[in-house]
Write a structure and sequence with these properties.
Elements lengths: L1 H35 L7 H22 L15 H33 L12 H4 L1 H22 L22 H8 L1
Helix pairs in contact: 1-2, 2-5, 3-5
Length: 183
């Protein structure tokens, strides 16, 4: 049940990220074209700012889930499989500590910015800044799930945590596996 709900959550998050990104690209392009005719969209910059903040930060959670964040493995890939997993767990713990600081101070920043409105829209700037702590909470959850998976497969030297993602057969969000387990 949890896995099926998690799969639905993942797909919804991916759709939101994609829609926000398409909105940024489409609105920026349309505004650029309209500026050549001296008819720019007055609210475009603020809408782009809002959509970009959410797409970039929610997109970081999607990238983390798919093991697509920038990483340096020149040293780690030469270690034994169990040592690689230990280093990855340590990296996730450090990331979660940083994300918890972003959550704490991000909500404080959003609260301070809540009375500030965007330049051309009657929307609080807090909606832009709250994207950081919300996304960090989601990335912390994703990191915990990744750690759980690494720990569960710690003794299996054939398990590669970098390939345990939705792109690969048997990955954490593989819909066939989740549906089979749910039945």
């Amino acid at each position: 049940m949890f896995q099926k709900a998690y799969l639905i959550y993942c797909r919804i998050e991916e759709v939101i990220v994609g829609a926000c990104f398409l909105g940024v690209v489409g609105l920026a392009f349309m505004n650029a074209v309209l500026r050549t005719f001296k008819k720019p969209i007055a609210t475009a910059d603020d809408v782009i700012l809002l959509l970009f903040a959410w797409s970039a930060l929610l997109g970081a959670d999607v990238a983390l889930r798919y093991s697509r964040l920038v990483g340096m493995d020149m040293f780690v890939r030469h270690l034994a499989p169990k040592m690689q997993k230990s280093v990855q767990i340590l990296v996730f713990i450090i990331m979660m500590a940083a994300m918890m600081m972003f959550v704490r101070y991000g909500f404080q920043l959003a609260a301070r910015n809540w009375s500030r409105v965007l330049n051309s829209l009657p929307i609080s700037y807090g909606w832009v800044t709250v994207s950081l702590p919300v996304s960090c909470i989601l990335m912390t959850f994703t990191s915990l799930l990744k750690i759980k998976k690494i720990v569960a497969n710690f003794d299996d030297d054939t398990y590669n945590f970098k390939k345990d993602n939705p792109d690969f057969e048997g990955g954490e969000n593989n819909s066939e596996n989740i549906e089979a387990k749910a039945e």
